[in-house]
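Most newcomers find our protein records easier to grasp once they have seen one. A learned vocabulary of local backbone shapes supplies the integers on the structure line. Here is such a record, shown just as it appears in the course material:
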Amino acid sequence: MYERIFTELKTPKLTFRNRMVDEPHQVGLNTPSENGGHVTEETMAFYRRRAQGGVGCIITELACVETVTGCQSFKSIRADDDASIAEFAKLASAIHDGGAKGFVQLNHPGCEANGLCVKPENFISASVIPSHRVPGLKTRAMTKEEIEWLADKYGQAALRVKKGGLDGVAIHAAHQYLIHQFLSPNLNKRTDEFGGCVENRARFLHMIIDSVRKYCGEDYPLMVRISAEEYVGKNGMHFDEALKVCKWCEEWGVDILDITKSGGLAHGSQAVEPPSFDQGWAKHFAKAVKANVNIPVCMVSIMREPSFAEWLLENNYSDLVGSARSFLADPDWVKKAAAGRDEDIMRCISCMRCYESMSNGGSIRCSVNPEAGLETTVVEPVLNGNGRKVGVIGGGPAGLEAAAVLAKRGFAVTVYEKQPYLGGQVYLGSRSTSKHKNMWLIETLERRCNENNVKFVLGCSPTIDELKSENYYAIIDAAGGVPMLPKFIEGCDTSSIVVTPPQVLRGEIDFNDKAIAVIGSGFTGLEVAEQLSERSKGNGVYVIEMSKFIAPDGNGSLRNDIVDPLLRNQVMFLLNRKCTKIDETGVYMEDSRTGEPFYLPCDVVVMSIGVKSASPYGDELETICSNVFKIGDELKPARIMEATRAGYEIGMNLQ
């Protein structure tokens, strides 16, 4: 069906079975150690699963070429020691088991080093610049001797990868890590032969490429990842300079170029795009590089659908198409594309939970793929439903995931949803332009349910007697949550000007020419503010937040994705304001730091400080059958990832 995706890519040194590349991203499944991470069965299972799903090439998470100055995590493989050869051999075995080619990404983070792993005096970079990960710490500029020493370390690390049986190495020269810190005029302030013009700033990369060739020979495949554009303003490295570097890489003996983007220190949103970015938004960079070099080019710029990947290849944007999150969300993406089952692909919704799950030493997880990072625990579903009847209360992600799995196992499942649509809180959130992709999850789960004859009863809240009459073997209570109206805010449950987020997001209430206060700057509150400021006319919108931060518990890229358009719409943020009382005229607050009182007159107040379990039946469901399970917001308010995991677990484990 997709001729170009499934055409082999033959290079003088290597042949890929197809054109799809699983791009590198942190996985966090290695065993942590001060001597470097050790590849576990969980790590191997993760990569093996994606290779079995059909990708042509997998580029693993980074390995540290030098750990005294450049350790990124205690879980990262330490490529500066021969003990790493055995670790690389495990990765090679797992990837080759699935039929894919495997590259290891080699990296030194420079000013992005981990402050728990690297001593302050050992933070190095091209110049004296701040460390992003250790507030207040500045790196020291590398000496010429250190530059030569570290370039040699790259070559030694590449040789260990080769000895471990991997098919190639990928040098990470992008995303504001050390090599990019040399390439970027925004970060490189040197005045010697490693600073100034782009040729000088690329000298370190040239030395690294030469070092890899010295240790591994001319025949060992070498890929380099380049940021085509920095997106940091006039002082950044722009594409005209990046294109020069790409041409030089070909001259220096690089075999494949991996074209990406970055947006400032710590992976700006252009490197790991939030939901508002469209597929292929930066595809022009790869196309221009491909037109100017004679080696294969891989494009990384959001790819979710096989038809789009095929279009990119057909129109000469690149020779390979890469993604990380698409294959995390659905490891069988390539197999499904080959079988013409595009509609069954679970697309990444760009929710960023994969990156959040990695914080504080965590391991990779995914909102739409409950098995991600847990591959060693995955078993085939036991097909023992035998037509036993299961009622699922609630058509949100938890209920739909449970229904899909149970129906596949042979249970006769009925889903009740009180609204005339499926999705629950996800449906409401998807009304925001920054969250519209969330409904992809609901659409795919609904399709899986339909394939296995799940019965949907929409616009219905069944009574206890109606449920009893069905003689259910089990009931899954996924009724979801309802907005909180806390008693500690006087008047929030009695004032006539108070409304809730669902009323606004469902369009039950539409305001024009009103002064509106949204209490709470979580993502639901921001979505409400967006709708009230963008889709209604003449409203003045304030968002009131007790913290000094907007969306204090949210992902930074997601926050920026929705806050920027709010600011353009003149939404005002009142931070460090604790709401104490609401009457018929407005909101009474106090400064959360000093207690100073404030008053904001307004026409409407939207209470958006969280949800609580809906519990429409209390404990009465226990009178229907002995198998009653609460999941999702009905058990405990949570997010999509926790909801789908809970639905998956009950679906797999119901006996």
User: Anything to note?
Assistant: The chain has 21 helices and 28 strands. The two ends are 40 Å apart (CA to CA). The longest strand covers residues 57-64. The CA atoms of residues 342 and 545 lie 42 Å apart.
